[in-house]
Amino acid sequence: MTAVNTKTWTRVKLGDVAKQVSVHEHNPRSAGLERYVGLEHLDPQEVRIERWGDIQDGTTFTKRFHSGQLLFAKRRAYQRKAAVADFDGICSGDLIVIEANSDYLLPELLPYIVHIDRFLDHALRTSSGSLSPRTKWKDLAEYEFDLPPLDRQQEIVSILREVDGAIARARKCRDSAYLVREAAVQDRFGKRSVSTLRRCRVDEIGGVATGTTPPTKRPGMFGGDVPFANPGDIGRSRFVRRAKRTLTAAGAAVGRTVPAGTTLVACVGFSIGKVAMTSARITAFNQQLNAVVPRSQDDADAVFYALWAARRDVVRSAGLNTTPILTKSAFSALQVVWPAPAARERFVADLVPVELVVDCMTRSEEHTSELQSHSFTSYAVFCLEKKKSELQSNSFSSSSFSFFAKISAVHVYYHCIL
Question: pTM of the predicted model, to two decimals?
Answer without folding.
Answer: 0.60
